[in-house]
């Protein structure tokens, strides 16, 4: 077997590489990734922020585990913070106090952990919005969209379980609300609550149980999902925005080594630096002001972490009674009464349920309506998919209404209006807002598309006013360079596809529904300018001034 | 214009891709010409960029050093303002340490590393030949297993696999450590510490309350006597806390069966919101409303705490009270209905 000549490396890099390669075979990986091309755009950054804040959570969280005691044993606080000295609290709260006041840098780590958590959920959310509005979820990336959705849910779960750990007044109140929501689940809710708390609320075990979820199960699931997510990104390669030279068959960007790796790696430190700055200067969750959990004291004006706000807001918007009918409803059944707690069950489950269902199934809904089975690696500018932009804005509006409702008391005191009126307005907005949001956003997208058409057909406005020999004043327009022009005309022209008969010549009800939806989405559309259209335009007007309003080029098909 | 949206992904063995096949379309002009940066052409600019990057790294080193100054020189702070200061300085040290490295590297990449955009072809995610091979292999595996030909094996296996996880679910039964059976577990939600002749005492001190102490318009936060002596008071407290107020009896609408539940206009109601369980503790004296701070359920004290606004669906339960021979307020009995959030087994009473 010694017929092949052994490769002898010359440089020290070569020697190290050879050592590693001949044992674990890394050269294939370097070949695959070393110069892999990644497109660059500022909006691709949010996913990175999510990843980096997660890394910060792992680092700071691990530090916290060395000092945190997840026990509800009753202890008397005896740390450095005088106002609470001698007060009874759980060991969890007391150890969190110690992290804050008696471990040097402990407060900093707690604040890094909490700010990173807020930023983590925020960046995951914004990242998802970017993916949605640019159509990056389309084939072949549907499954990665689902993985992203699961990551969002797990991020909220991680945040909630963590928020409950310090066992202060606020987190205890949060848990109590969760307990109330769980109890509203028909048939099994009471048992789930009793099992979770190991008996009645608050019991003595729930912190320890949340702790194993928070530091082990949930981060492990997130880590796994992140791995799957990134693996799929590599398999699919990144999408790119349309532009000259960027097609559905290529990727244009920077190679991983060195430019992309340097930028992405450097960006981790920038994210860390920004989180450190916020954590150094802005207090978050000052549990020493709240005190230990006690079921009796009030905490007015306090808010949950932002990502839980929409559920809390939905709970607030729901009326408990309709006239004389209580939505906390006793159903007479053969064996006696049971309570169906609709006033809690509906707002806790239905809005979030609808939102996540539409979110998860959207790639398939869109594929079904558009009958588009092709692969897409070029993104849409949001204006070039007015129906999708409208739907996305509708979703964002309904989320924001619920979110605002979580601060209805603050809105009322801040603007000196009655709390009840704020609630009535928000209830109305909850139903009307998304519809208005859809219509307005779609209209704006369509008019931006129309503006693009104008620019292509009439050229760029130069700001130079000319007087013609006949004495009329016009602004001079300059033709676009081919790169800019390509940017404005190269987009997917989705059209209304009426319901189609199947092989037997029959139009199924499902197909009719699809046709109706397709009509609703694509009846109004702005087609991209074609070369022949532009040529006709030039022939009619020459290259000189053209009137701004030219109804003959209107291509909205009604 | 050809309708290109009907391409079936399966017919030709290749995957349909977007953006192909239109005739009346503008030609792609290709990537715009590359523009050189200053540092690519001017050696001075290059040197300057190099110095800037190095300076940023030095700022990072200074940041790390100042972290240590904050850690050791400020030592172990004693009061909250010193802790705030130390926290801010640790934070700023870390900020400079990290931003120095981060901005330095990004600046380096932007000014000095090659900025030619490169175009690479996408490869097919699923070459057709591979897919056919895979299909064949799977068919062969299934065939050799013979599972389709042996329904007895298949069905018993499905049965066994369906049953096997059920013990894992049952093992969670002992998450409830009380040892009570299911009925007793749920039953405990109906009862609180209140009982005949249990005194109403102040929260948190536990001192009893004389009827004469309760003035018109005042409000007391109340716990049952003996609560503080319990080994684990929070569980009982989470159900038993009560609000005590005195109203002008002329304002009160009292139903027939509750007419002796109050003492001279002194009424006691559960403080646990019937919505999802927050403490209801804002009392608006002028309107006689109780307001829950969590989701703003509003209860009208003059109408036996009926819900007049917000998401709660039931009135706050009333605790029947009276005075004992020493003039202290006591409970006549436990609440007549479960307190706090509703649950499936609650029913009308
Ligand atoms: C995966 C995303 C994570 C999120 C969103 C998250 C969120 C949170 C939040 C909001 C808190 C409350 C902090 C406070 O006191 O103000 C917390 C506490 C805590 N977290 Fe996390 N965390 C995550 C991951 C981790 C990991 C991976 C660990 C450990 C390896 C960890 C360990 C802890 C510990 C020990 C506490 C309690 C100490 C304290 O409250 O100060 N966390 N977490
Ligand atoms: S808990 Fe009182 S209103 Fe929700």
TrEMBL record, chain A:
Q: Which UniProt keywords apply?
A: Membrane, Transmembrane, Transmembrane helix
The EC number(s) attached to this protein equal 7.1.1.8
Enzymatic reactions: a quinol + 2 Fe(III)-[cytochrome c](out) = a quinone + 2 Fe(II)-[cytochrome c](out) + 2 H(+)(out)
UniProt domain Cytochrome b/b6 N-terminal region profile: residue ranges: 16-242
Tell me which SUPFAM superfamilies the record gives.
Transmembrane di-heme cytochromes (SSF81342)
Q: Which cofactor does it need?
A: heme
**PANTHER family in the record, alphabetically?**
CYTOCHROME B
Question: Which protein is depicted?
Answer: Cytochrome bc1 complex cytochrome b subunit
TrEMBL record, chain B:
Q: Which PROSITE patterns match?
A: RIESKE (PS51296)
Under Gene3D superfamilies, the record lists:
Rieske [2Fe-2S] iron-sulphur domain (2.102.10.10)
Its annotated compartments are: Cell membrane
According to Swiss-Prot or TrEMBL, what is its membrane topology?
Multi-pass membrane protein
Query: What Pfam family does this protein match (any one)?
Result: QcrA_N
TM region(s), chain numbering: 53-75, 87-109
Q: Which UniProt keywords apply?
A: 2Fe-2S, Cell membrane, Disulfide bond, Electron transport, Iron, Iron-sulfur, Membrane, Metal-binding, Oxidoreductase, Respiratory chain, Transmembrane, Transmembrane helix, Transport
- Xref: InterPro entries: QcrA_N, Rieske_2Fe-2S, Rieske_2Fe-2S_sf, Rieske_Fe-S_prot
Pinpoint the Rieske domain residues. Answer: 239-330
Family annotation (CDD domains): Rieske
Annotated region (Disordered), positions in chain: 1-44
Which segments does the entry list as coiled coil? none
**Database matches in PANTHER family:** CYTOCHROME B-C1 COMPLEX SUBUNIT RIESKE, MITOCHONDRIAL
The job of this chain, per UniProt, is described as:
Iron-sulfur subunit of the cytochrome bc1 complex, an essential component of the respiratory electron transport chain required for ATP synthesis. The bc1 complex catalyzes the oxidation of menaquinol and the reduction of cytochrome c in the respiratory chain. The bc1 complex operates through a Q-cycle mechanism that couples electron transfer to generation of the proton gradient that drives ATP synthesis.
The text of the family note is:
Belongs to the Rieske iron-sulfur protein family.
Its recorded name reads Cytochrome bc1 complex Rieske iron-sulfur subunit
Q: Which organism is it from?
A: Paeniglutamicibacter terrestris
